[in-house]
Amino acid sequence: MRKNGNQTVVVLTALDVEYNAVRAHLTEIRRHVHHAGTQFEVGRLPGGGGEIVLAVTGQGNASAAVLAERAIAEFDPRALLFVGIAGALATDIELGDVVVGTKIYAYHGGLDEADGFYARPRAWEVSHELDQLARLVNRDRQAEGKVHFRAIAAGEVVLNSQTTPLADQLRRNYNDAAAIEMESAGTAQAAHFNRGLPTLTVRGISDRADGNKYLADSKGSQLVAARNAAGFAMDFVAELIGKPAGSQGLDWVVLDAPVDVQWRSDLARGADSGPAALEVHLVPADASRRLEVRRLERLPDELDSLGRTLGLFNGTEKLWSGQTGVGAAVHTTEYETSPAGIAVLRSGQMSGWTPLPRDSMGAVLDPADLVSRIRRLLEILAAIDLTPAPGIVPVIGIQPAIMVTEDSVQRMPRNRASGLGMRNEVRVLPDDSLPGEQFIRHPDEVAEELAARLMAEFRQRRY
């Protein structure tokens, strides 16, 4: 008998970074302890729907199989997901992309003879229902990181080379596998033994299994990959259990008092000259919160890696990174060509800025393009490894705003422009806040609202 109708989904992860990325999407979280000591957390997606059971298995197919079996027996779920990170085997997959497993190979099975190794793999294909639903979710969603529907190889070792016998074995015998990891074969086996429980593997790519794993990890690739995998998985679960996506709206709360905002001109010199830049700041509503200075000391390198990994910096600019009087920052030093940067202040304010598209006639403010740019900045800020404040005030602006035109990027390059902005900056002064987790769970809605506010302010003040 199902304990929660047919609306319970079990989500397993191997690492804490994966677990935390999924947990950030949940609300109404409570603890459930199995009689053998396994710690589960049970929560919901915002807006209702069924329950999501979350647990960390540790690395390896054996432990994943045991805990999958335990979770299935305890919660009798509608479906089982394994969500986490993986190494890429295919060359057309980028760091941060998501691979949804259409087939799981347990590749270590085989016969080793004097004349060579003969593969005897086991394989499990994803159920038609989950595969179709995942593809539908991918078509409908607008998020960073490409999603691939490919086979995944799951074994018992961490592959970090393209020249080892294992790498050669994978190329020869499993050349359709796009990613490699260590748990999905165990969960697939457990699901198979439980009347073919529908199971889906969702993996974010954190390295290329090419000898550079630890370098990629040090640059924050695991965090980005885990967040991307969790984001897609939770969109999938929302569709599976019938949560009305986006129907609840955002929980805006009017501020009792204004907050202190540090704008880009306060954080990096050159903001009042050069090309127009879009800036987004997330300011804690509670002014009493403070970050520790020792945490700020580690942030410049983290912000540098994050900006490069997520494409804020193109890899050719000269960057400045370090601590300022009020926090830590990394930003370009070529103010006249490419203003971009990230900053974190002791107050907890997180800031990001990026140039607007421009041609010889000046910068273009295109509402559709604006939403995409805000969404990218929100993604970058959400990836900073800090606990979200309970309430966050989003602040947005453009500086300088002179020679900025509302137009379409599709018309660029232009030979004429009209309606030019005549102010040095356009700033939307904040008067409300959102729960911190909504910036992670509903980035598209937040981006659309901030874009609408900025466009309204620009249209009102441009002449």
Roughly how many Å is the radius of gyration?
Answer: 24 Å
Architecture of the largest domain, CATH level 2? Answer: 3-Layer(aba) Sandwich
Strand percentage lies at 25-35%
Question: What general outline do the C-alpha atoms trace?
Answer: globular
User: What are the segments in which pLDDT stays under 50 over at least 5 consecutive residues?
Assistant: 1-5
Q: At the third CATH level, what is the topology name of the largest domain?
A: Rossmann fold
Care to give the gist of this entry?
The chain has 12 helices and 25 strands. With 463 residues, it is of the alpha+beta class.
Structural features, described:
The chain is an alpha+beta fold. It folds into 2 domains: 3-240, Rossmann fold (3-Layer(aba) Sandwich), CATH 3.40.50.1580; 253-461, no CATH class. The protein has 12 helices and 25 strands. The protein has helices at 16-23, 61-75, 128-140, 165-173, 184-193, 213-218, 221-240, 264-267, 293-309, 367-382, 438-441, 443-461; strands at 3-6, 8-13, 27-33, 39-45, 48-56, 79-88, 98-106, 110-113, 116-119, 122-125, 147-154, 177-181, 199-207, 253-254, 277-284, 319-323, 327-332, 341-345, 350-355, 358-359, 362-365, 391-399, 404-406, 426-428, 432-435. Strands 14, 15, 16, 17, 18, 19, 22, 24 and 25 form a 9-stranded antiparallel β-sheet that branches. It has a 5-stranded mixed β-barrel with strand order 6-12-11-7-13, surrounded by 5 helices. Strand 4 and strand 5 (48-56) form a beta hairpin. Helix 1 crosses helix 7 (221-240), helix 2 (61-75) runs parallel beside helix 5 (184-193) and helix 3 packs across helix 7. The longest helix has 20 residues, at 221-240. It is globular and about 75 Å long. The protein starts with a strand and ends with a helix. 47% of the residues are buried.
